[in-house]
Specification:
Blueprint: E1 2-5, H1 6-22, H2 26-38, H3 42-61, E2 71-79, E3 82-85, H4 95-109, E4 134-140, E5 145-152, H5 154-157, E6 161-165, H6 171-185, E7 193-201, H7 203-212, H8 225-239, E8 254-264, E9 269-276, E10 282-286
Parallel strand pairs: 1-3, 2-4, 7-8
Antiparallel strand pairs: 2-5, 5-10, 6-9, 7-9
Length: 287
Amino acid sequence: MRTLQYIQVVEAVERLCIECGYELPTDVLEALYDAEHAETNPRAKRILGKLIENARVAKTERIPLCQDTGLAVVFLEQGASTFVAPSPEKPAATICDAIQDGVAAGYEKGLLRKSVVAEPLGERANTQTNTPAIIHHSIVPGSEIKISLMTKGGGCENKSQFKMFNPTEPKEAVADWIVEVVRQAGANACPPFVVGVGLGGDFEVSCLLSKRSLLREMGQSHPEPYYAQMERELLAAINATGLGPQGLGGDATALKVCIETAPCHIASLPVAVNIECHSHRHKTAIL
């Protein structure tokens, strides 16, 4: 059994929060460069150039990429042979408590806007820590702990949708709905987008798949040719809408479509679309 200290998890998450806030991932930045190079609309090309410049300024001057520094969403994979020892100050604390402490520390130290309210109706009082973060915890073989953190902005998250299709619906009907969801997202969700799609599972699993798919590297496609082709077709159809960067017209409405799938009930065909804005902020640490 391998043992990690509580503070190691806290410090790793703190660092990930700050890096997410200031540094656009290299693959996302490269996708923006590619979109700028290929863009035929002069105004859209200028907007893409501004987004690239914004990323440069944020990284060099250590300021947030966006004023909405996001809700922290963590995919935590804990190796079955690894134990996280609780801190002396918190003898009953778990690895999930360490994640929460790391998020609070990262948002405080990084001077990142705290955007979490304690309950959804009523007073909606700000927690002042950007916690609780959303944590998806799984136990996997091995001795490593993998922490993938995404700081998800409210504008794009608000435009995400779910639909339960009849299992007899053709692929074309599903694809048309996905494209329409993206079109409806419009300028409010800050295109060009990264579009996560979850197919299968059940009500909640399809939504989780759509969120998890956004962690995929921009250059990677679905491993199965059928869904890889569907990703390409969806990207082409979304970009054909002409919505363009910031919704002002152009070729680049989306940078990438990522599909994740799971087995589902014979009577069901759940589909979820998770919209991500151009400031696609995510980082991973392995302990």
